[in-house]
Design the sequence.
């Protein structure tokens, strides 16, 4: 992207072996405006170059350039700037609703008198289909093919829609199912670090519709996750509007000790930075320990930026970046990337320490083997303390006495107690034990945090190899799975001879995509699920992913732990979470000798030797040469051509959304919210999983009842994620997570609320969707009250879309996670924030009051507003002050338009 305008005379030519390329020189800008930009964080330099290159006097002004060039460590975060990323990446869960919206916008454009072909991506967009594979089959050699077949059976309609989009839209490419996960495909193939268009070189940058887009920061590429709503605007040529960021520097010293993995590092970083409070910050790594981390290690840490709350987790370009490009088949880029980054001050050298808003020290040599859980990624536990912490959690969090007793206090040491009989590790088959509290029922090496890291995957393979040599097997109640992030992983595991031992332990490849950590773990075997339900067991999942929020992994699993791939293998062998690996054996070998984890764990030197022999650049070039072809099922899908999509009124997957119904040519003035009722009152830590659940759809849930009414049998429900193109399903799924707790109905768990619409003042407990529809029929607007970190987690646009379609006009929370707040604005829902130190509890709000919020033409960014709260029983009225979290003038404009998409559509039609 470039306008060709050079307001400061900064365009220079960079001579390369293959010829010259032009670029906007930051040192030249420094001379032109007399400001020192050399000590800026490198992430801010990328923002500055983008503003300079995309200057048009309207969306990017001279003021924006000067504002970024004036970035100062002590007063950042106050002024708004615009950023135009070079490209957009999408995954299919979030990409399908994006495409649905674009298709609907094309029709609305005609209604408003515009040209529908103007609704077209103006920047390159790559959609990777990776979130629809589910682990139905596992632990068998044909699991991959069977799961792929089932995936196409479930999602053929969605995939045909995506193929329509590929031919109908310009700049829109689809990577078919069975190829890899979006972040790993981005890291290994799509990213170029420096791009060249029409002879102009500039930094690669992007936004993505998955919060873990930040994984690409490990390659020195600035990018982060946004909601699908904001991504659509970028696709249509609009910048991302943001406050000039604070930048937290993380100084790395030392190096990781023997036996400590990149997963242990990232769990430590997540806990550390959550403690410092970096929500909304750019985080940039530097220091003497920087060069000890491989690009794969860096990508592992960068992937988890949403878990420590940051916008980015950036590792600048250095010699290891260049080596990685060569090793992954992109050697043609190496000269350009190094020369450009050195010229622009984007190259990391030993001793570099830019000016940061603050600096956090991380001593790599103090990192220790770790887990995180049982409910949040930031809840790191030293592996040495795992047993003690589990015992505390079992009592404190789950209300259970010990792992041997069920809720009735009956011993479960025998089959009669309702447990699942299984033989002990290394036993003869006659030793029977039962499923108990703490039993590990899912052990998943799952993309995307760790499977991009060859050292971690090879370590897991070596642990499996040594376990097989000693005669160990995974416990029979453990659902084991391996979901590599790309087919290259299989290539080097095969080359190293490690695929066979992984298969032998049940870690057969189940698919190439996001599985367990997105809730696509598939059902547990019936005997396991039945025992869990019958005895109200607290069973566990151990996975190498990045999310373990409650209710996310599997509806039968209450405790989930994040761990490195080799530890996942170890827990599959143990079959329980309460094992002390330092003293408890994993089993016994054929000679009845105990086998400990230390007997299986490889040295760092062994891992490197295996990786060097098994990993080759040709594996990447060969796999990605045919990246857009896909399996035969994909190739056989035929779709109609044309600029407009033909909606099928009978479809339960793809439906025309109502977002543009009755849209006028111009926005209405903002109106006050009067007579509102509270739909839900939440405490702290409500995630987008709680708001818009992923995973399975239950027959008794409103979404399941809707599908049954449409003639869809329960086995064909598929997942919430797969039906994101159907607003009827997703609206019914909003606030319907099985573990959500609405304080309006404190004795319930799940998607229920107190309906407060009765004229006599009485209340009734109803499903949230039913209550919202009753309020809508009565013309009553709704609000949601919440505590801290509202909307943390995945960047799900449906968490905001569903909120809007339920009739919620405002959310009032103590604090917000960045992406969800932005998404609420994007859907025309007003985010308001209680004053510092105030909460619904301190203000005495029960949620049963009537709420009035006055709004008028003076509405501006960060404005203090008054909420009038009237007690329904006494009629007494009181006031509380809140802050409008419309943070920028552009967000105010979006809100006035009813959201970002109506604003962009009106702008396109006017043009």
Sequence:
């Amino acid at each position: 992207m470039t306008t060709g305008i050079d307001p400061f005379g900064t365009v220079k030519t960079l001579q390369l072996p293959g010829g010259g390329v032009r670029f906007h020189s930051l040192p030249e800008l420094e001379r032109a405006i007399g400001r020192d930009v050399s000590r800026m964080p490198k992430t801010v330099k990328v923002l500055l170059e983008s503003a300079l290159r995309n200057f048009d006097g309207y969306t990017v002004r001279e003021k924006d350039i000067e504002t970024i060039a004036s970035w100062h460590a002590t007063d950042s975060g106050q002024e708004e700037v615009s950023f135009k990323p070079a490209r957009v990446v999408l995954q299919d869960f979030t990409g399908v609703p994006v495409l649905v919206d674009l298709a609907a916008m094309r029709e609305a454009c005609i209604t408003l008198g515009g040209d529908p072909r103007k609704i077209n991506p103006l920047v390159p967009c790559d959609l990777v289909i990776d979130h629809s594979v589910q682990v139905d089959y596992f632990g068998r050699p044909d699991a991959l093919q069977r799961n792929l077949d089932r995936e196409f059976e479930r999602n053929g309609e969605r995939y045909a829609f995506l193929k329509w989009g590929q031919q109908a839209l310009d700049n829109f490419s689809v990577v078919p199912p069975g190829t890899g996960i979006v972040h790993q495909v981005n890291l290994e193939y799509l990213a170029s670090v420096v791009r060249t268009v029409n002879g102009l070189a500039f930094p690669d940058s992007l936004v993505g519709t998955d919060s873990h887009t930040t994984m690409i920061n490990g390659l020195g590429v600035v990018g982060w996750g946004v909601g699908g709503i904001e991504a659509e605007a970028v696709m249509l040529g609009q910048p991302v509007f943001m406050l000039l960021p604070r930048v937290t520097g993380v100084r790395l010293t030392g190096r990781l000790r023997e036996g400590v993995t990149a997963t242990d590092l990232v769990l430590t970083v997540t806990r550390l930075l959550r403690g410092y409070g970096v929500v909304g910050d750019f985080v940039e790594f530097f220091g003497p320990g920087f060069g000890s981390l491989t690009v794969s290690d860096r990508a592992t840490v960068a992937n988890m930026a949403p878990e420590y709350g940051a916008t980015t987790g950036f590792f600048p370009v250095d010699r290891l970046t260049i080596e990685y490009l060569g090793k992954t088949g992109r050697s043609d880029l190496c000269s350009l990337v190094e020369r450009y980054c050195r010229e622009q001050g984007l190259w990391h050298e030993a001793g570099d320490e830019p000016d940061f808003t603050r600096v956090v020290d991380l001593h790599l040599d103090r990192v220790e083997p770790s887990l995180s859980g049982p409910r949040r990624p930031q809840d790191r536990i030293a592996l040495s303390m795992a047993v003690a912490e589990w015992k505390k959690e079992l009592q404190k969090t789950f209300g259970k006495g010990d792992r041997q007793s069920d809720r009735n206090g009956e011993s479960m040491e025998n089959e009669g107690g309702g447990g699942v009989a299984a033989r002990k590790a290394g036993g003869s088959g006659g030793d029977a034990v039962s499923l108990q509290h703490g039993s590990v029922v899912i052990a998943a090496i799952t993309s995307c945090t760790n499977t991009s890291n060859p050292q971690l995957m090879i370590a897991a393979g070596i642990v499996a190899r040594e376990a097989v040599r000693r005669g160990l097997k995974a416990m029979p109640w453990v659902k084991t799975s391996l979901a590599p992030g790309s087919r290259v992983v299989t290539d080097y595991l095969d080359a190293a001879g490690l695929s066979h031992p992984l298969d032998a332990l049940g870690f057969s490849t189940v698919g190439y995509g996001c599985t367990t950590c997105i809730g696509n773990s598939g059902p547990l075997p019936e005997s396991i699920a039945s025992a869990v339900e019958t005895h109200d067991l607290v069973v566990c999942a151990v996975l190498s992913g990045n999310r373990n929020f409650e209710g996310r992994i599997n509806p039968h699993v209450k405790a989930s732990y994040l761990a490195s791939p080799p530890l996942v293998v170890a827990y599959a062998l143990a079959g329980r979470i309460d094992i002390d690996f330092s003293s408890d054996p994993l089993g016994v070998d054929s000679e009845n000798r105990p086998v400990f984890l230390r007997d299986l764990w490889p040295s760092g030197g062994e891992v490197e030797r295996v990786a060097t022999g098994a990993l080759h650049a040709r594996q990447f070039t060969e796999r990605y040469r045919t990246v857009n072809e896909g399996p035969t099922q994909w190739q056989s899908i035929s779709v109609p051509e044309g600029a407009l999509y033909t909606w099928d009124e009978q479809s339960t997957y793809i439906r025309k959304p109502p977002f543009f119904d009755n849209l006028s040519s111009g926005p209405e003035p903002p109106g006050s919210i009067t007579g509102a009722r509270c739909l839900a009152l939440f405490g702290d830590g409500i995630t987008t999983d709680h708001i818009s659940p992923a995973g399975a759809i239950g027959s008794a849930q409103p979404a399941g009842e809707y599908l049954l009414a449409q003639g869809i049998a329960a086995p064909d429900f598929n997942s919430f994620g797969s039906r994101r193109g159907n607003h009827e399903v997703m609206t019914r799924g909003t606030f319907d997570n099985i573990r959500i707790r609405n304080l309006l109905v404190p004795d319930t768990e799940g998607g229920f609320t107190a309906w407060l619409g009765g004229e006599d003042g009485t209340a009734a407990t109803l499903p949230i969707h039913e209550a919202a529809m009753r309020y809508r029929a009565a013309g009553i607007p709704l609000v949601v009250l919440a505590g801290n970190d509202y909307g943390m987690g995945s960047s799900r646009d449906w968490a905001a879309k569903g909120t809007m379609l339920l009739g919620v006009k405002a959310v009032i929370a103590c604090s917000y996670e960045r992406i969800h707040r932005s998404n609420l604005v994007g859907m025309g829902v007003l985010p308001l924030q209680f004053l510092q130190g105030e909460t619904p509890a301190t203000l005495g709000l029960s949620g049963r009051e009537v709420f009035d919020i006055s709004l008028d033409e003076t509405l501006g960014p960060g404005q203090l507003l008054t909420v009038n709260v009237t007690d329904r029983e006494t009629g007494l009225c009181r006031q509380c002050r809140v802050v409008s979290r419309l943070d920028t003038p552009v967000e105010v404009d979006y809100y006035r338009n009813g959201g970002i998409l109506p604003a962009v559509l009106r702008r396109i039609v006017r043009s």
